[in-house]
Design a protein that fits this description.
4-stranded antiparallel β-sheet; globular; Rossmann fold; alpha/beta; about 240 residues; 2 domains; 6 helices; about 35% helix; putative n-type atp pyrophosphatase, domain 2
Length: about 240
């Protein structure tokens, strides 16, 4: 194994949290979490509730590095390919800074990509430029098997945003459990909804898991906009391990 530290690309959502968990399970020395906070829609990154990544990082016990919107290049992208490249620039710059800060530099990067060649090819190229390995344990895996593995491991996953036929306001704040997965499989048959939301059908937040010392608790309202919606979080905190 290459010497140096590992860095985990981390949004607080289920996919990046699973990649982090699997890396820790494997014994990779993850010394930093890196959260990108994009403005508006993004081709490259999970967008909603990334501000809660700091709570998750505190519970995990690994320092967090934020890449803020002001760090993004102001250049206008002419197409989706150029936008993806432009969105990657501040992340790569932040990782370059970390490589000089961490003992031994960056040995590897974890990523939660499942099926997006658009995202994965860019992250792979970035890792090549940084001379770092890429650990992407979800890549090309069966979505249902991944979902079951997350639940079997003890992940508590909340749906925080939906935007797809068949997903109504009742899904906002819903726990992604076995019943929800069965409902998603039915919606996949009827509407083509991806069971992991890989097409942007829904976004998630991991509020507890075996890699976390304390669960995240939320107070929120739901906001519904006709065909899509999200939870508007008014308060979030780390509970005691007992749930108090």
């Amino acid at each position: 194994m290459t010497t140096g530290a590992w860095v985990s690309l981390f949004s607080g959502g289920k996919d990046s949290a699973w990649a982090l968990y699997r890396a820790l399970e494997r014994g990779l020395p993850v010394e930093r979490l890196v959260t990108v906070h994009p403005e508006g829609d993004s081709y490259m990154y999970h967008v909603p509730a990334t501000d809660l990544a700091s709570l998750a990082a505190e519970s995990v016990g690994i320092p967090l590095v934020d890449v803020e919107p002001d760090d993004f290049a102001a250049a206008e992208a002419t197409d989706s390919s150029q936008q993806g490249d432009t969105e990657l620039e501040p992340l790569e710059a932040a990782l370059g800074d970390l490589a000089t800060e961490l003992d031994g530099g960056i040995a590897g990067v974890t990523a939660g990509a499942v099926e997006s060649e658009y995202q994965t090819s860019r992250i792979e190229a970035m890792c090549d430029r940084l001379d770092a390995e890429l650990f992407a344990p979800l890549w090309q895996e069966d979505p249902r098997e991944l979902a079951d593995a997350m639940l079997d491991a003890g992940f508590e996953i909340r749906i925080i945003q939906v935007a797809a036929h068949g997903l109504d306001e009742s899904w906002l704040g819903r726990t992604l459990d076995a019943e929800a997965l069965a409902d998603l499989e039915a919606l996949n048959d009827e509407y083509g909804v991806h069971i992991l939301g890989e097409g942007g059908e829904f976004e998630t937040l991991v509020t507890d898991g075996p890699h976390m010392d304390r669960p995240i608790r939320l107070e929120y309202d739901t906001v519904w906009e006709g065909t899509r919606g999200y939870i508007e979080i008014s308060d979030a905190w780390l509970a005691q391990a007992s749930g108090e």
